[in-house]
Structure formats: structure tokens, C-alpha cells
Write a structure and sequence with these properties.
This protein is of the alpha/beta class. It contains nine helices and five strands, in the order E-H-E-H-H-H-E-H-E-H-H-H-E-H. Strands 2-3-1-4-5 form a five-stranded parallel sheet, sandwiched between helices. The structure holds adenosine-5'-diphosphate (ADP).
């Protein structure tokens, strides 16, 4: 089962991804995590993308598509995988469709986590406060200004994926405003409908 997670920053994709990994035994492929890993490791790609990530803009479609294409070759992706943070543009979605087609696979379902815009900035403030209380580092792009930039980028470049996947009859909207467990239950219900 190949699942795409769609939703603005702060919608709870990471939290729900952990639940899906656990329940369905498929790996989570987070391009944000992979890019931050490349930055931390100081690879050539990491050096190229650090400033872009910190500014809240998108890394080039070619760079992220190459990272994903390589990752999905791994054996653990054979039963399926959950894409979190990719695709983020219509061009990336087309690249994904093309790379899966070569392997005679396809996206099975796109789960869109729907949340109120106003709730997102509140969630960010909580996330920062909690990280600080725990003494954990706060992501460089998790400050209010860059976060608002990321929300704008989502609306302009990623939201067009909603009609893109609607047209493919793959889009399932899930109310992301409930409690964590209620949201997980709704996602599981959608996945179980199509599971094979
Ligand atoms: P978010 O909390 O916004 O969902 P992510 O961890 O998914 O954050 O991504 C953080 C940053 O990494 C993005 O703002 C962007 O710069 C870069 N990035 C992640 N995935 C992609 C992608 N598919 N295309 C382009 N840039 C990406």
C-alpha cells in the first residue's frame, strides 16, 4: 500500500505517520527528515539545501525526487510506504507517478489532513514551547516568521495537489482538528477501505 500524506505544516502528519508505521508495518519516508539528515551529515546535497530549508522555501523538485526514487528501491519499501512531505508540487506528483509506473506500482491513497489555519500557528507555538521545556533543539525553520512563509508556500505550491489527486479519485479528506486518537481512527478507517 502506497500512501501519500498531504496537509499544511503543523497539521500533525508526523504524529499520524508514527501511528501508520506501527499499525500497517510500512516505513515512513519523510523528505523533510531526509533533507535534514543530509544537512546534518554535511553531504553535498545537504550543503546545497540548508539555506533553502531555513528560509521556508522549497528545495528543487529534481533534488527531492532523486532522494525519493533512491529510497523506494530499498527492500523495506517492497510492501509499501508512507510518503510524508512529498510530493509538494504538481511537478513532483507527476515525477512520482512516472517513477512508480516504471515499477508497475501506483499511489493507492492520498490522505489530506484538514485543519483550521488559525490552529496551526497555535500548534507551532506549543511545539516550540514543549521542545524548549524538554531542552530539545528547536528546528531552525520553526519560528513564527518562517512558519508563516511555509504556510504560504503550502497554499501556493502544494494545495494544487488536492484537485490533482481528486481527479485520480485517490483523495480522502480527514478532519485533523480532533484529538490524536480520533484522527488516527479516521485515517485507519480510510486505509482499511482500500487495503490490499
Ligand atoms: P513541514 O513541517 O513543513 O511539513 P518538512 O519537515 O516536511 O516540514 O519539510 C521541511 C522543509 O524541507 C520544507 O520547508 C522544504 O524546504 C524542505 N522540503 C521537504 N520536503 C520537500 C519537498 N518534497 N520538496 C521541496 N522541499 C522539501
Amino acid at each position: 500500500m502506497i500512501v501519500v500524506f498531504l496537509g499544511p505544516p503543523g497539521a500533525g502528519k508526523g504524529t499520524q505517520a508514527a501511528f501508520i508505521v506501527e499499525k500497517y508495518g510500512i516505513p515512513q519516508l519523510s523528505t523533510g527528515d531526509m533533507l535534514r539528515g543530509a544537512v546534518a551529515a554535511g553531504t553535498p546535497v545537504g550543503k546545497k539545501v540548508k539555506a533553502i530549508i531555513d528560509s521556508g522555501e522549497l528545495v528543487s523538485d529534481e533534488i527531492v525526487a532523486a532522494i525519493v526514487e533512491e529510497r523506494i528501491e530499498a527492500e523495506d519499501c517492497a510492501p509499501g510506504f508512507l510518503l510524508d512531505g512529498f510530493p509538494r508540487t504538481v511537478a513532483q506528483a507527476e515525477m512520482l507517478d512516472a517513477m512508480l509506473e516504471k515499477k508497475e506500482r501506483q499511489v493507492d491513497i492520498v490522505v489530506e489532513l484538514r485543519v483550521d489555519q488559525e490552529a496551526l500557528v497555535d500548534r507551532l507555538r506549543n511545539r516550540i514551547r514543549e521542545a524548549e521545556e524538554r531542552g530539545d533543539p528547536v528546528r531552525e525553520d520553526d519560528n513564527e516568521e518562517t512558519f508563516k512563509k511555509r504556510l504560504g508556500v503550502y497554499g501556493e505550491q502544494t494545495a494544487p495537489l488536492i484537485p490533482y489527486y481528486e481527479k485520480q479519485s485517490k483523495l480522502k479528506g480527514v478532519d485533523g482538528m480532533g484529538g490524536i486518537e480520533a484522527v488516527s481512527a479516521e485515517i485507519a478507517a480510510r486505509l482499511d477501505e482500500i487495503k490490499r
